[in-house]
Amino acid sequence: MRTDAAQAGAIPEELIEPSLTVGKVTPGSLDDQVLAFPETKPPKQWYVGLAITLTALFIGLGFIGYTFVTGIGAWGNNSPVFWAFDIINFVFWVGIGHAGTLISAILFLFRKRWRNAIARFAEAMTIFAVMCAVIFPLIHVGRPWLAFWLFPYPNERALWTNFRSPLLWDVFAVNTYFSVSLMFWYLGLIPDIASMRDRTTSKLRKVVYTALALGWRGAASHWQHYEKAYLLLAGLATGLVLSVHSVVSFDFATSVVPGWHMTIFPPYFVAGAIFAGFAMVVMVLVVVRETMQLQNLITLRHLDVMNKVILSMSCIMGYSYLMEGFTAWYSMNEYLHHGFMNIITGTYGWAGWITISCNILIPQILWFKKARASYFWMILVAIGVTIGMWFERFVIIVISLHQDYLPSAWRIYKPTMTDFGILLGTFGLFFTLVLLFARVLPVIATTEVKAILPDAQPSHHGDDHHA
Amino acid sequence: MPETSYAVLGVFETPDALMKAIPKARASQLGTVEAYTPYPIHGIDEALGLRKSPLGGMVLVMGILGALTAFGFQYWISAVDYPIITGGKAVGSWEAFIPIMFEVTVLFATFTAGLGMLLLLNRLPFFGHPVLSSKAITGITRDRYALALEAENEAFDAAAAARILQEAGATEVEILPAPDRSPFLTSDYILRVAGGIFTACLGAGLVMYFAIKLFPVLAPMKYMQDQPRLNAQKPSSFFKDGHGMQRPVAGTVARGHLPTATGTQDESAALVNPLPRTKEIFAVGRQAYKNRCEVCHGAVGDGMGSLTAAYGAKPANLHAQQFRDYPDGKIYWAIVNGKNAMPSHAADLSEPQRWAVVHYVRALQRAQNAKDEDLKVVAP
Asked: A229 — contact with chain B (CB < 8 Å)?
């Protein structure tokens, strides 16, 4: 295709996309590099990492167990701050997941071929993040073993769910999001698992991969349907990823709490989710790139483009914060005004300033090309954005709730050890799953990368039927 | 039957070589031409003459079905089966149904695209395809491009097909044997599958029973029910006297129990019973008398109740001349305020119940001291 265009002179040289890999990469060498990880023993650092993440996970499980035994009074939630860490963490984790779907679906529709190398990892992170997210509403209902009451099914209580409640929309949105992400991820994995099935020498692996690959044999007639399905799923997931965080924002926006009841919330939440998700993807990919020696596949160019996305999202967030302030001022509503002043000067003003500096100020360094190529700066920004986006949800939820219309109801919120313990536990779960994923499944979508390697496509495929 | 072969597979090194070989293989007309590649190759659909994938239409239909299902379900629940007004909206207002309609549309469409592609169009999972057990498969899922001439009928000429592929530039040619077609749906197999399904259902049922009926009542799940609380008939360490049930605070007046008979008993003599003497009123009075008075005053009001012996008390015999001469107001006063050992029944009996009891006591008195003229027939 490339040589075609260059020969015809239709596309100027500078517009031709440079190769997406560094050095000589062939389909065979790609398999040997990426698919070999599950067949080799993990290095020592991997075990150390797993020990750390498992410790965090078990601390979290301990605190969840404590919550079950004592009830959610073990948390810092009070009246009027009925929603606190549980919903903050839920929104935070669902948001982290959005980058994966954006990379795998939206960038696929836009034919951004650089996404192929990072899509698999980002999709996996989506699934793990949603798994972390659903823990919080589940344990917040108090009796999670009865959480199936959230679903509308004919029951002996003769009750139905309320379809006008955004919380029920959330149940549908998050479940759909998880199912679709899983389907998308699995479909992408099938040809890769088939590759692993055909190269492994271990009997056990052979059985597992054979079952998971569903007998995939790479027939052209299968690829045709497969590509169509992938395109359709990308289109569906694109709509979905925009809807999920919009629905999450409806939990707030449809209420009348000052600071929540705003029409900017859905786009603002979606942008924030992509922002936080990309930061997490950059953070994890830098570690993966270095420890797994994938520098030739996940290139500095990939990181550069992702940092540009972070920068642009940071600007959208800055606009949203300004717009919040403008709305508070222009509405001339004293409650809204009070709520906004609380963010910058109130008891929790420090949280507001952490949000603004981590999300708006620090990422501005990415305007410099050197910073976009420097691990130090991109990790700093990524950690900053992760912290900043967590505090943004803290600001939205706790600051808005702790002082609303009635001064006699105002109360300060203080999280407990249990709150922090469960948050730590979900980080443990997330990174445990990331570590396990990195060792048992192909971390890079080899099939998709093979298709964009130089000479991967027939050079004159048009000639056959024109001649 | 080793002599029948399923297909001949030729392996090519580059996609270019594969694409060049396709027209030659198709022109030979020896069998169905199929390519096996590690990733999708641009333009191969046209070269092989594949029909357009019908997946788009399937997804569209199922997506619309998803939207209609979600709308119908929500409308039926919210407006027909369980209508509850929320936020002042009409029960059938459809705007709030849109988010879930969207989600269900995407869900239906996604499963149609994913499972429809795998199960319906590609007929997967299928582990018995001859290509999977070929030598070439390790290359096909790695970096080799294979072209197959697949048998359409018994007259398949494998040798000719192999020659064609070799001439087209295949580096290796492999003849694939036909898959084992011995029947597998034997009665033994069906029995085992049915047994497996039955066992799985039984297991699932037991798990569901445990999850729904037993699990929620185990510790710590039942702690929610086991919270400390006062039970009326149980002891409690919360109060000094150790009783769970406490008397109401002195002067407590329940709704409908206003003590109209204040002051002394003599002052209340002037009160007039406001209730008419009807059958219904007597029934109410009789019930209230049985509940509250009978234990001491006895079923006929003679002061020989069942509690009398236990306490050694002497409740009033309501048939004594003294009480027969009482005006209604004085009896009423005694009910409200109590007298001697008798406690107040103001908290137990409502205003109409008290007056009904007064009527009933009057009836008891008259019944025990009947006169001759009481025997005359009142109504025919």
From this structure: yes
